[in-house]
Structure formats: C-alpha cells, structure tokens
Amino acid sequence: MIKKENLDKTSAWPFVEAKKILRERKSIIEKKGKITLQTGYGPSGLPHIGTFGEVARTSMLVNALKHLTDFPTEIITFSDDMDGLRKIPDNVPNKEILEKNLHKSLTQVPDPFNKYGSFGEHNNEKLKTFLDNFNFKYDFKSSTKLYKSGFFNPTLEIILENYEGIMNIILPTLGKERQKTYCPFLPICPDTNHVLEIPMKEINKKKSEIIFDNNGKDLVSSILDGHCKLQWKVDWAMRWFALDVDFEMYGKDLIESAILSTKIIKLIGKKNPSGFAYELFLDEKGEKISKSKGNGITIEQWLDYASPESLSLYMYQNPKRAKKLYNKIVPKAVDEYLEFIEKAKTQDELRLLMNPVWHVHNGKVPKENMIMSFSMLLNLVETSNADNKDLLWKFVKKYKINISEREHPIFNNLVGYAIKYFNDVIKSKKKYKIPDEKEKKALMALIKTLDGCNDKMSPEDIQTLIYSTGKDNGYSENLRDWFRLIYEVVFGDENGPRMGFFISFFGVKETKDLIINRIK
What we know:
Oligomer: single chain
CATH architecture of the domain at 437-519: Orthogonal Bundle
Strand order of the largest sheet: 3-2-1-9-10
CATH topology of the domain at 437-519: Arc Repressor Mutant, subunit A
Number of helices: 25
C-alpha cells in the first residue's frame, strides 16, 4: 500500500492525469460508478507502434487510478472501421483489390491478405493480437457493429435534433466551397456501399431521415442502424456522449478536432472528457509515422529485437515530446530499462513512483541483477562471433562463472535479442576504420600496455592504463578521439563500450588478438 503523502507529492504524469480525471469528472464518475477511458484506432492501414503507445500509456494511467480510487476502470479500444477507404496503403499486397473498393466502409472492403472477411476486420484482429501479447485489459468496440446494432441510435437522434447548432460550430472552420456541401451525416450508398460525402437537401427529424443530393438524384436515408455514419469531428463527440467517456489521449495533430468535438458534446448535453495531447511519433527522417506508409519501426520488429517492457518504457517517457521510432533507438531504450531497474533497488517510495519501470511493471519492479548493458552485449556478439544463444551463454559464463539462465530471465532474453539485432541491423552496416601509420602506432602502444595487464585486474585499473596510453600517444588534448579510434577500428562504430569493463569481461589476450587482427 503506497503512503497517501507520496501519492499526493508524486509528479509522475500518470498520477497527474489520474488526479485531473478524478477532479474534473468527480460528480459524473460518482453517479455512474466507474471510470471509462477510450483509445481510438482507424483501421485504414495496419496498426502501427503509435497505436500501441496510446493503449500502453492509457493502461499506465489506469494503474495510477487504482492507487487513487476504488472506482472500477475500463479501457475502450474503439475502431473507426465504418470509415470509407480513401487511399491505398503502401504496405499491403494485392492492391488491386483495394483499388476496386475505394470509398467503401473498411468492413465492406475485401481483405487483401485473404485471411478475414474484410480489410477492416483484418486490421482489427491484428491490433487485438498486438494488445493481447502485452496483456492489456481492454474492451474492443467496432464502429460498424455499434452503428448497425442501433447502439448509437439514441445519440444520433440527439445529433440530428441539434443539427443547426452543430453546423454553426463546424462551418466557420471550413472553406467557402466546402461550406456549401458539408453535412455532418454521411449516407452509405445502398447500391455501391460507398460512404458518400454529398450535400443535404432536406431533414425530417420526426422520421430520423435526411434527403441527400446524390449527383442530381434524391437519396433518402435513415440516420439510424448504420445507414449513415457521422463526419469525424461529430462522430468523436457522439462517441464520447454515447460511451460516457471520462478520458481520452490523442496526438497533437488532433487538438483542433478535440476542441470542436468538445463544443459539440457540450451542445448536446454532456461534459467533455479529460484530454491529454501527446507529441507525434516520427520515423528516422523526422516524418510522421503513417499507417498507409508503414514507415518507422513496426511492433513486430521491436519485439524481435527487444522486450515488450523496453517498448513500454519508451512510450512512458516524455509523452509531450516528439519521439523517433526506428531500429537504432532500440539498444538505448533497452539500456535505459536496465538502468531504471538498477536504480529502483535503492529508491525510497516517492522516488520509486517517479521511476518509469514502476509504471511499466504496474508497481512490481523486477529484482534481477544486471550482468551487462545491451550495448555491451551487442559488442560481445560481434567479437565472439556467437550465432546462437547457447554459444553466447558459454562465452558469458566463461567470465561470469556463477550465473545461470534460470536466475537471469531478463538477461537470458537479451542474449537472444542481441544476436537477432546484430545480424539484422548492425552487421551489414559495419564500417571498420583502417588506421593510418600514426594511428596504428598508437594502437600498437595499446597492445603493449595490455601485455602488462591480466584478467584479475579491475576494470577501473585497465581503463586508467588505456587513458594513459592515449595521452602518451598524441591524444592528450582529446581523449574522446582516442576512444573513437579504438571503437572505429575494433567495433566499426564511433561509439562503444567502456573499454576497461569490456576487456575485463572479454579477456586481455582475446582483446589483444582482436586489435591485432583489425590492424593487420
């Protein structure tokens, strides 16, 4: 049980947002007896890592709520799968199937993967599989099912009743030409199943019908039972209203939409949920990650190279700051995860609440002692030429005699991840420096220094001798260049491990042989 004074003092963002929900929605939550949080997903493309981030962060917020209140919580993961397919994603097969079905609801578009009844269903199932792998607790809801089942009917009638007021909110945000044709309701064409964006001619509120101008022909459509769907901003407000949503986070690109949806839900009679705008996810080039492009690292790739917990940690940190998501950030994220586990061992309760791994593990931080960083392990994969877990473990145990796989489950997983990551991401991009005569002379001096070392020396003593060798061989003014030379020649990279620790682990003789082979 966490002390109340520590819950009051902590500034960890999940607790800050949880307190905000309880403060802003107090009377509403007390009346309905539960707290509802929503995450949204548009299945017009394969789910990307940003979608996972939204659910992961919302789950962390739920964990904080459980320490602050006894009210039950639920996360609704909502799929806008009744939306029309507007463009063809780059990362799908059989594009001609999608081209023939443009503008149809995603649940009416055939699956180009030939696995499910529709493209929308395929992407929904893909998302649920991802979320289930992380053991998230959520209630999945499909826009198509809720529209067609009539669940949204009462709220849709309220939207129609407030048609003029909603138009007064939306129209000032549109260009003059768009204002002439805009209608909050999008009819589903009974002949083509296309989601139509056509002008409204007449409304019959008593019958819950709208007459649309479909290229000069009248199209009479009920707004109920899935015959129409709402435009995005109105749909979002309707969803908040119908599902009694207390909280939703969203990317900063949706801030303007959230403002308009807030005005709409207030117009139709309810208070808007608490919101949290996070910064966007970017690829290596700094471009926004997109479902249709498939750019950036995928969830599957991250899980090939690192643990689910390391990904959750990456999502926890600095949600108000833009994040680049590509292969090269994985080792740093893993090492930060390991470092936070180590820090947790000596932290008091208040500082522990600020530690990201407390939120990643729902308060149950692992106690495992770390053997080495992931970055160091990657260097070991390279220098040992280990191509499987058993071989790399044998190498590790050669220098760490009293360790076992059973007692180090986190590290045991890292061993497998390191081999996969090195072979897939690092190996082909290695560029080993060929030293010039001056640099070769300095490295030969290092070999001579290592002649006077042995495997019983401490990493710190070895590191000191390496420093001295650099100073004595032309690097007294810039030792960073000295170590960069070692890294570029030995590891094919500008950066590398702390050499004293690496040598004490890898072995003095083995390191000497490695350098000699690199400068031949």
